[in-house]
Specification:
The chain is an alpha/beta fold. Helices cover about 35% and strands about 30% of the residues. The chain is elongated and about 60 Å long. The two termini are about 40 Å apart.
Length: about 180
Amino acid sequence: MVRAGFVSGPLLVPRFVIDEVQSIADAHDPIRRRKGRRGLDMLDALRGHPGNDVHVLDDDVVELEEVDAKLVALARRLKVDLVTVDEPLQRAAELQGVRCLNLARLSDGLRPVHVSGEVIRLPITREGKEPGQGVGFLDDGTMVVVGDAAELVGREVDVRITGNVRTALGTMLFASVSQV
């Protein structure tokens, strides 16, 4: 969003948020540690982007302990919007009158819509959960489950979209190998 010019004005990052991201980056669990380090890298990239001001706020909300609650209270006090990918945080903030910009919703809205019958080229990267299935991923990360494609792992093939399902993580597509 910053590179595309959709964010104007300074970005305010409370120190307690940086502290939480740092604690996640130091976690024993490798997945949490990777997410925390990515968060720190993203903050560093934002700070280094030309024309973008990132201000670290030393303001704290000492009467609250949970970071999400502190963030909402601080946004209310400063009368600023929150930028998040966290749906529960967004709902809690909006219930308290804080406007939220949800990057996950933006990303979902920008994904191309694939309809039943459409043929796309897809690399099959692994076998699926069910016997005979192959799985591939679109450039945007959308998972495509392809029937009768297990033997095609490692190849790029034309597949015909047969359906889709919305999940908490986004849309998952189903397809069959196209007989073009």
